[in-house]
Amino acid sequence: MNNDQPVKLLLVGAGSRGQVWTKVCSEATNVDLVGIVDRDLDRAEHARSSYANQDTLIEQDMGRALKATQPEAVLVATPPSTHYTLVSSALSEGKHVLCEKPLSEEISEVVDLVNQAEECNLELLVGMNFRYLATSLRIREYVENQSLGTLSHAQFTYMRHRDGTRQDLNDYPLHMQYPMLFEQSIHHFDLLRYCYKSEVHSLVADSWRPTWSTYKNDCCVSVLFRLDNNVHVNYLGTWTGSWNKMDFRWRSEFSSGVLIQESQFDNLMRVEFQPELGLEGTRFKEANEAEPYCKEKLAQCVPFIDDSSMLLDELVKAIRGQQAPITTARDHLQSLSLVPAAIQSIEKKSWINLQEYQKSIGIT
Protein backbone atom coordinates (compact mmCIF):
# COMPACT_ATOMS: atom_id res chain seq x y z
CA MET A 1 0.00 0.00 0.00
CA ASN A 2 0.98 3.66 -0.37
CA ASN A 3 2.27 4.73 3.03
CA ASP A 4 1.23 8.32 2.32
CA GLN A 5 -2.43 7.35 2.07
CA PRO A 6 -4.65 6.95 5.16
CA VAL A 7 -5.67 3.42 6.09
CA LYS A 8 -9.32 2.83 5.19
CA LEU A 9 -11.04 1.67 8.39
CA LEU A 10 -14.48 0.25 9.11
CA LEU A 11 -15.80 0.63 12.67
CA VAL A 12 -18.17 -2.07 13.94
CA GLY A 13 -20.06 -1.02 17.06
CA ALA A 14 -21.29 2.46 17.96
CA GLY A 15 -21.94 2.02 21.68
CA SER A 16 -20.13 3.98 24.37
CA ARG A 17 -16.71 2.67 23.35
CA GLY A 18 -17.59 2.94 19.66
CA GLN A 19 -18.39 6.63 20.16
CA VAL A 20 -14.87 7.13 21.51
CA TRP A 21 -13.35 5.28 18.58
CA THR A 22 -15.38 7.39 16.14
CA LYS A 23 -13.84 10.53 17.63
CA VAL A 24 -10.32 9.04 17.67
CA CYS A 25 -10.55 7.77 14.08
CA SER A 26 -12.04 11.02 12.79
CA GLU A 27 -9.21 13.04 14.31
CA ALA A 28 -6.45 10.71 13.06
CA THR A 29 -4.67 11.90 9.92
CA ASN A 30 -3.46 8.40 9.03
CA VAL A 31 -6.95 6.81 9.06
CA ASP A 32 -9.98 7.25 6.83
CA LEU A 33 -13.13 6.15 8.68
CA VAL A 34 -15.17 4.85 5.75
CA GLY A 35 -18.09 3.28 7.62
CA ILE A 36 -19.85 2.71 10.94
CA VAL A 37 -21.75 -0.54 11.52
CA ASP A 38 -24.34 -0.98 14.27
CA ARG A 39 -27.66 -2.82 14.52
CA ASP A 40 -29.09 0.42 15.94
CA LEU A 41 -28.94 2.89 13.05
CA ASP A 42 -29.84 5.80 15.32
CA ARG A 43 -26.82 5.03 17.47
CA ALA A 44 -24.58 4.80 14.41
CA GLU A 45 -25.99 8.07 13.11
CA HIS A 46 -25.30 9.73 16.45
CA ALA A 47 -21.66 8.66 16.25
CA ARG A 48 -21.38 9.95 12.68
CA SER A 49 -23.10 13.27 13.33
CA SER A 50 -21.05 13.87 16.48
CA TYR A 51 -17.59 13.12 15.12
CA ALA A 52 -17.36 11.71 11.61
CA ASN A 53 -17.64 12.94 8.05
CA GLN A 54 -21.22 12.89 6.84
CA ASP A 55 -20.09 10.83 3.84
CA THR A 56 -19.19 7.98 6.22
CA LEU A 57 -21.36 4.97 5.44
CA ILE A 58 -23.94 3.87 8.02
CA GLU A 59 -24.86 0.18 7.86
CA GLN A 60 -26.45 -2.51 10.04
CA ASP A 61 -24.58 -5.47 8.52
CA MET A 62 -20.79 -5.80 8.52
CA GLY A 63 -20.75 -7.97 5.40
CA ARG A 64 -22.60 -5.37 3.35
CA ALA A 65 -20.41 -2.62 4.75
CA LEU A 66 -17.23 -4.51 3.82
CA LYS A 67 -18.40 -4.84 0.21
CA ALA A 68 -19.48 -1.23 0.00
CA THR A 69 -16.39 0.38 1.55
CA GLN A 70 -13.54 -2.09 0.83
CA PRO A 71 -11.57 -1.15 3.97
CA GLU A 72 -8.07 -2.35 4.77
CA ALA A 73 -8.87 -2.80 8.45
CA VAL A 74 -11.82 -3.37 10.76
CA LEU A 75 -12.13 -2.00 14.28
CA VAL A 76 -14.50 -4.11 16.42
CA ALA A 77 -16.09 -2.33 19.41
CA THR A 78 -19.06 -4.57 20.17
CA PRO A 79 -19.89 -6.71 23.24
CA PRO A 80 -17.42 -9.58 23.85
CA SER A 81 -19.93 -12.30 22.94
CA THR A 82 -19.89 -11.05 19.32
CA HIS A 83 -16.12 -10.70 18.90
CA TYR A 84 -15.26 -14.16 17.65
CA THR A 85 -17.78 -14.16 14.80
CA LEU A 86 -17.02 -10.60 13.70
CA VAL A 87 -13.24 -10.90 13.88
CA SER A 88 -13.25 -14.26 12.12
CA SER A 89 -15.43 -12.85 9.34
CA ALA A 90 -13.18 -9.82 8.91
CA LEU A 91 -10.06 -11.98 8.75
CA SER A 92 -11.68 -14.28 6.20
CA GLU A 93 -12.22 -11.20 4.02
CA GLY A 94 -8.53 -10.36 4.22
CA LYS A 95 -8.88 -7.43 6.64
CA HIS A 96 -6.54 -6.43 9.42
CA VAL A 97 -8.34 -6.14 12.76
CA LEU A 98 -8.18 -4.14 15.96
CA CYS A 99 -10.67 -5.58 18.46
CA GLU A 100 -11.71 -4.40 21.88
CA LYS A 101 -10.80 -6.68 24.77
CA PRO A 102 -11.36 -9.45 25.46
CA LEU A 103 -10.86 -10.94 22.03
CA SER A 104 -13.30 -13.60 23.23
CA GLU A 105 -14.53 -14.89 26.56
CA GLU A 106 -13.48 -18.39 25.39
CA ILE A 107 -9.74 -19.05 25.30
CA SER A 108 -10.16 -21.68 22.59
CA GLU A 109 -11.74 -19.06 20.33
CA VAL A 110 -8.88 -16.64 20.97
CA VAL A 111 -6.35 -19.32 20.05
CA ASP A 112 -8.31 -19.97 16.85
CA LEU A 113 -8.39 -16.26 15.94
CA VAL A 114 -4.65 -15.93 16.57
CA ASN A 115 -4.02 -18.88 14.25
CA GLN A 116 -6.36 -17.48 11.60
CA ALA A 117 -4.59 -14.12 11.58
CA GLU A 118 -1.12 -15.65 11.43
CA GLU A 119 -2.09 -18.07 8.65
CA CYS A 120 -3.45 -15.14 6.61
CA ASN A 121 -0.49 -12.89 7.47
CA LEU A 122 -2.88 -10.27 8.85
CA GLU A 123 -2.47 -7.96 11.82
CA LEU A 124 -4.76 -8.69 14.79
CA LEU A 125 -4.41 -6.24 17.67
CA VAL A 126 -6.41 -6.03 20.90
CA GLY A 127 -7.61 -2.89 22.70
CA MET A 128 -5.25 -2.89 25.67
CA ASN A 129 -4.78 0.86 25.28
CA PHE A 130 -3.93 1.56 28.95
CA ARG A 131 -0.39 0.47 28.07
CA TYR A 132 -0.08 3.82 26.32
CA LEU A 133 -0.88 5.97 29.34
CA ALA A 134 2.05 8.19 30.30
CA THR A 135 1.99 6.66 33.80
CA SER A 136 2.27 3.11 32.44
CA LEU A 137 5.13 3.98 30.11
CA ARG A 138 7.01 5.70 32.94
CA ILE A 139 6.62 2.75 35.33
CA ARG A 140 7.92 0.42 32.62
CA GLU A 141 10.86 2.78 32.08
CA TYR A 142 11.83 2.58 35.76
CA VAL A 143 11.67 -1.21 35.63
CA GLU A 144 13.92 -1.21 32.55
CA ASN A 145 16.56 1.28 33.68
CA GLN A 146 16.50 0.25 37.37
CA SER A 147 17.18 3.84 38.47
CA LEU A 148 15.17 3.01 41.61
CA GLY A 149 16.85 -0.36 41.95
CA THR A 150 15.28 -3.78 41.56
CA LEU A 151 11.51 -4.22 41.65
CA SER A 152 10.40 -6.46 44.52
CA HIS A 153 6.67 -6.27 45.24
CA ALA A 154 3.56 -4.23 44.52
CA GLN A 155 -0.01 -3.48 45.54
CA PHE A 156 -2.68 -2.59 42.98
CA THR A 157 -6.06 -1.34 44.26
CA TYR A 158 -9.05 -0.36 42.11
CA MET A 159 -12.13 0.54 44.18
CA ARG A 160 -15.08 1.99 42.29
CA HIS A 161 -18.84 2.15 42.53
CA ARG A 162 -19.78 1.54 38.89
CA ASP A 163 -23.55 1.40 38.69
CA GLY A 164 -24.13 -0.89 35.74
CA THR A 165 -27.56 0.62 35.04
CA ARG A 166 -26.19 4.06 34.06
CA GLN A 167 -27.41 5.10 30.63
CA ASP A 168 -23.94 6.11 29.42
CA LEU A 169 -22.40 2.70 30.21
CA ASN A 170 -22.54 -0.58 28.30
CA ASP A 171 -25.17 -2.77 29.97
CA TYR A 172 -23.96 -6.22 28.89
CA PRO A 173 -21.65 -6.60 31.94
CA LEU A 174 -24.73 -6.64 34.18
CA HIS A 175 -25.30 -10.33 33.45
CA MET A 176 -21.75 -11.48 32.69
CA GLN A 177 -20.02 -14.13 34.73
CA TYR A 178 -17.15 -12.38 36.54
CA PRO A 179 -17.71 -8.96 34.92
CA MET A 180 -14.94 -7.27 36.90
CA LEU A 181 -12.39 -9.85 35.78
CA PHE A 182 -13.31 -9.83 32.09
CA GLU A 183 -14.08 -6.14 31.66
CA GLN A 184 -11.80 -4.27 34.07
CA SER A 185 -9.23 -6.46 35.82
CA ILE A 186 -7.98 -7.73 32.46
CA HIS A 187 -6.57 -4.23 31.86
CA HIS A 188 -4.80 -4.26 35.20
CA PHE A 189 -3.41 -7.77 34.70
CA ASP A 190 -2.11 -6.68 31.30
CA LEU A 191 -0.45 -3.62 32.84
CA LEU A 192 1.33 -5.78 35.40
CA ARG A 193 2.78 -7.96 32.64
CA TYR A 194 3.64 -5.01 30.40
CA CYS A 195 5.03 -2.55 32.94
CA TYR A 196 6.88 -5.12 35.02
CA LYS A 197 8.26 -6.86 31.91
CA SER A 198 7.54 -10.34 33.24
CA GLU A 199 5.05 -13.16 32.84
CA VAL A 200 3.00 -14.55 35.72
CA HIS A 201 4.40 -17.69 37.33
CA SER A 202 1.41 -18.51 39.55
CA LEU A 203 -1.64 -16.97 41.20
CA VAL A 204 -4.35 -17.54 43.79
CA ALA A 205 -7.68 -15.71 43.64
CA ASP A 206 -11.03 -15.13 45.30
CA SER A 207 -14.19 -13.30 44.21
CA TRP A 208 -17.56 -12.28 45.64
CA ARG A 209 -20.70 -10.19 45.10
CA PRO A 210 -21.88 -7.57 47.65
CA THR A 211 -25.60 -7.75 48.32
CA TRP A 212 -26.28 -4.23 46.99
CA SER A 213 -24.48 -4.73 43.68
CA THR A 214 -26.23 -3.93 40.39
CA TYR A 215 -24.37 -6.89 38.86
CA LYS A 216 -25.86 -10.35 38.84
CA ASN A 217 -22.55 -12.12 39.47
CA ASP A 218 -19.23 -11.63 41.25
CA CYS A 219 -17.92 -8.10 40.74
CA CYS A 220 -15.17 -8.08 43.38
CA VAL A 221 -11.88 -9.90 42.95
CA SER A 222 -8.68 -10.38 44.94
CA VAL A 223 -5.57 -11.98 43.43
CA LEU A 224 -2.04 -12.70 44.63
CA PHE A 225 0.48 -12.94 41.77
CA ARG A 226 3.97 -14.39 41.69
CA LEU A 227 5.83 -13.26 38.57
CA ASP A 228 8.66 -15.05 36.80
CA ASN A 229 11.08 -12.31 37.91
CA ASN A 230 10.13 -13.06 41.54
CA VAL A 231 8.01 -9.92 41.90
CA HIS A 232 4.94 -10.42 44.12
CA VAL A 233 1.73 -8.43 43.52
CA ASN A 234 -1.36 -8.06 45.70
CA TYR A 235 -4.41 -7.04 43.61
CA LEU A 236 -7.87 -5.93 44.76
CA GLY A 237 -10.55 -4.68 42.40
CA THR A 238 -14.28 -3.99 42.59
CA TRP A 239 -17.12 -2.37 40.67
CA THR A 240 -19.34 -2.33 43.77
CA GLY A 241 -17.97 0.03 46.36
CA SER A 242 -19.84 1.91 49.07
CA TRP A 243 -18.31 5.28 48.19
CA ASN A 244 -18.72 7.07 44.86
CA LYS A 245 -15.17 8.40 44.98
CA MET A 246 -12.87 6.54 42.61
CA ASP A 247 -10.03 4.98 44.60
CA PHE A 248 -7.09 3.95 42.40
CA ARG A 249 -3.70 3.27 43.94
CA TRP A 250 -0.81 1.33 42.41
CA ARG A 251 2.33 1.11 44.53
CA SER A 252 5.51 -0.45 43.12
CA GLU A 253 8.29 -1.20 45.62
CA PHE A 254 11.90 -1.04 44.37
CA SER A 255 15.07 -1.60 46.38
CA SER A 256 15.89 2.12 46.29
CA GLY A 257 12.47 3.72 46.29
CA VAL A 258 8.78 3.58 45.49
CA LEU A 259 6.48 4.59 42.64
CA ILE A 260 2.87 5.34 43.59
CA GLN A 261 0.19 6.03 41.01
CA GLU A 262 -2.68 7.76 42.79
CA SER A 263 -5.30 8.04 40.04
CA GLN A 264 -6.24 6.00 37.01
CA PHE A 265 -4.64 8.22 34.38
CA ASP A 266 -2.04 10.39 36.12
CA ASN A 267 -0.53 11.42 39.48
CA LEU A 268 2.54 9.21 39.48
CA MET A 269 4.68 9.90 42.56
CA ARG A 270 8.28 8.91 43.25
CA VAL A 271 9.91 8.36 46.64
CA GLU A 272 13.67 7.84 46.94
CA PHE A 273 14.37 5.52 49.86
CA GLN A 274 16.61 6.73 52.72
CA PRO A 275 17.18 3.62 54.90
CA GLU A 276 18.88 5.61 57.67
CA LEU A 277 15.59 7.40 58.45
CA GLY A 278 14.26 4.12 59.80
CA LEU A 279 16.78 4.25 62.63
CA GLU A 280 15.74 7.64 64.00
CA GLY A 281 12.68 9.71 64.82
CA THR A 282 9.28 8.16 65.47
CA ARG A 283 8.70 4.52 64.69
CA PHE A 284 5.43 5.19 62.81
CA LYS A 285 6.25 8.19 60.66
CA GLU A 286 3.78 10.65 59.19
CA ALA A 287 4.41 12.06 55.71
CA ASN A 288 6.31 15.10 57.03
CA GLU A 289 8.82 12.83 58.80
CA ALA A 290 9.49 10.45 55.92
CA GLU A 291 11.21 10.80 52.56
CA PRO A 292 9.68 13.54 50.36
CA TYR A 293 7.08 12.82 47.73
CA CYS A 294 8.05 13.92 44.20
CA LYS A 295 5.51 14.07 41.38
CA GLU A 296 6.75 12.67 38.08
CA LYS A 297 6.58 15.10 35.17
CA LEU A 298 4.45 13.42 32.53
CA ALA A 299 2.93 14.43 29.21
CA GLN A 300 -0.68 15.54 29.46
CA CYS A 301 -3.15 12.81 28.55
CA VAL A 302 -6.83 12.95 27.62
CA PRO A 303 -8.13 9.65 29.08
CA PHE A 304 -9.46 7.08 26.58
CA ILE A 305 -8.63 9.43 23.68
CA ASP A 306 -4.86 9.86 23.61
CA ASP A 307 -4.12 6.28 24.66
CA SER A 308 -6.57 4.93 22.06
CA SER A 309 -5.01 7.18 19.44
CA MET A 310 -1.58 5.71 20.16
CA LEU A 311 -2.95 2.18 19.89
CA LEU A 312 -4.59 3.06 16.57
CA ASP A 313 -1.25 4.43 15.40
CA GLU A 314 0.36 1.11 16.32
CA LEU A 315 -2.15 -0.66 14.06
CA VAL A 316 -1.47 1.70 11.14
CA LYS A 317 2.31 1.36 11.45
CA ALA A 318 1.98 -2.43 11.62
CA ILE A 319 -0.17 -2.50 8.47
CA ARG A 320 2.34 -0.29 6.67
CA GLY A 321 5.25 -2.44 7.80
CA GLN A 322 6.83 0.47 9.67
CA GLN A 323 6.80 -1.10 13.12
CA ALA A 324 6.33 -4.57 14.59
CA PRO A 325 3.20 -4.48 16.78
CA ILE A 326 3.38 -5.42 20.46
CA THR A 327 -0.29 -5.26 21.48
CA THR A 328 -1.07 -8.36 19.46
CA ALA A 329 -3.66 -11.08 19.87
CA ARG A 330 -0.90 -13.59 20.66
CA ASP A 331 0.38 -11.34 23.42
CA HIS A 332 -3.23 -10.84 24.57
CA LEU A 333 -3.43 -14.59 25.16
CA GLN A 334 -0.93 -14.19 27.98
CA SER A 335 -3.03 -11.52 29.71
CA LEU A 336 -6.41 -13.06 28.96
CA SER A 337 -5.37 -16.50 30.22
CA LEU A 338 -4.91 -14.92 33.66
CA VAL A 339 -8.69 -14.45 33.86
CA PRO A 340 -9.78 -18.11 33.49
CA ALA A 341 -6.74 -19.12 35.56
CA ALA A 342 -8.05 -16.84 38.32
CA ILE A 343 -11.53 -18.36 37.91
CA GLN A 344 -10.06 -21.86 38.22
CA SER A 345 -8.25 -20.75 41.37
CA ILE A 346 -11.52 -19.36 42.77
CA GLU A 347 -13.36 -22.58 42.05
CA LYS A 348 -10.57 -24.91 43.25
CA LYS A 349 -9.52 -22.64 46.12
CA SER A 350 -5.87 -23.23 45.30
CA TRP A 351 -2.76 -21.75 43.69
CA ILE A 352 -2.58 -22.13 39.89
CA ASN A 353 0.73 -22.54 38.05
CA LEU A 354 0.18 -20.49 34.90
CA GLN A 355 2.48 -22.44 32.59
CA GLU A 356 0.77 -25.69 33.53
CA TYR A 357 -2.66 -24.08 33.15
CA GLN A 358 -1.86 -22.64 29.73
CA LYS A 359 -0.55 -26.00 28.56
CA SER A 360 -3.80 -27.66 29.69
CA ILE A 361 -5.86 -25.30 27.50
CA GLY A 362 -3.65 -25.48 24.42
CA ILE A 363 -1.55 -22.34 24.79
CA THR A 364 2.13 -22.93 24.04
Give your account of this protein's structure.
- The protein is α/β, with parallel strands linked by helices.
- 34% of the residues lie in helices and 23% in strands.
- It is built from 11 helices and 15 strands.
- The chain has helices at 16-27, 41-51, 62-69, 83-92, 107-119, 134-145, 179-196, 306-319, 329-336, 338-348, 354-360, and strands at 7-12, 31-37, 57-59, 73-76, 96-99, 124-126, 151-159, 200-208, 220-227, 232-238, 247-254, 257-261, 268-272, 294-295, 352-353.
- Helix 1 (16-27) runs parallel beside helix 2 (41-51) and helix 6 (134-145) crosses helix 7.
- The chain is globular and about 75 Å long.
- It starts with 6 loop residues before the first strand and ends with a helix.
- The model has no long low-confidence stretch (mean pLDDT 94).
Give the helix/strand layout.
Layout (H helix, E strand, L loop, with lengths): L6 E6 L3 H12 L3 E7 L3 H11 L5 E3 L2 H8 L3 E4 L6 H10 L3 E4 L7 H13 L4 E3 L7 H12 L5 E9 L19 H18 L3 E9 L11 E8 L4 E7 L8 E8 L2 E5 L6 E5 L21 E2 L10 H14 L9 H8 L1 H11 L3 E2 H7 L4
Parallel strand pairs: 1-2, 1-4, 2-3, 4-5, 5-6, 7-10
Antiparallel strand pairs: 7-11, 8-9, 8-15, 9-10, 11-12, 12-13, 13-14
Helix pairs in contact: 1-2, 4-5, 5-9, 6-7, 7-9
